[in-house]
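note to self — DONT lose this again. spent like an hour looking for the file last time. sequence + predicted structure for the chain T wanted, 83 res
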Amino acid sequence: MLYPDEGSSYWDFTGNVVRFGGSNWIGIGAPTVNHVIAEDNYSDNSKENNHGTDNTIDQATIVTNGAWPAAAQAIIADRFDVS
């Protein structure tokens, strides 16, 4: 889950892959989390939690059955050795 701690401000979550299953792909649980932007992300779960203030959360591209599109696969390959 993408999870900014209480009091986080001006974070930008862009270009992430969240493989989580049964919970939220992003979790903002407190009104003290503010001015967070989340865009161009991928997840296997459409649920989100945004109880913050002045946040812009664009729904992640939802992927089923592990069929990650090429853009998500590139993000994964860039961050992890998948060989």
